[in-house]
Amino acid sequence: MKEVITTDEAPAPIGPYNQAIKSGNTIYVSGQIAINPATGELEMGDIQIETTRVLENLKAVLKAGGFQLSDVVKCSIFISDMGQFSQINDVYSKYFDGHEAPARETVQVSCLPKNVNVEISCIAVQ
Which domain of life is it from (predicted)? Predict the structure, then answer.
């Protein structure tokens, strides 16, 4: 059985997908980008500001499903420039404790939706 998770605290999907799907004790959160849910505008210009918005959106979707960041077991990070890896990690480490951080991969891609610089998705389990 699966349950669609939605919240106004994160941006609405920009395609044919849901913000998240919960199945049993697991939630699968779709990739989040730096859209401010209150304004619908992108928060770009500085990779750390952009990454913060992405993680806040991710956190909001998790919360809507009854989960929190400490439940995350896997993140996938897609970035447009591997040269920004350390700056993204600086922000990411404020959301995920180092010794209990989830598994993850970071992949450089040629283009992301709306030409953003970072997109993050996750899987969380309770």
Answer: Bacteria
Whole-structure pTM value: 0.96
Task: Determine how β-strand 103-108 pairs with β-strand 72-79.
Answer: parallel
Place 45 in a pLDDT band, splitting at 50, 70 and 90.
Answer: confident
Q: 6: which 2 tokens?
A: 């939605």
The 3 state secondary structure assigned to 3-67 is EEECCCCCCCCCCCCCCEEEECCEEEEEEECCECCCCCCECCCCHHHHHHHHHHHHHHHHHHCCC
Q: Which CATH class is domain 3-125?
A: alpha beta
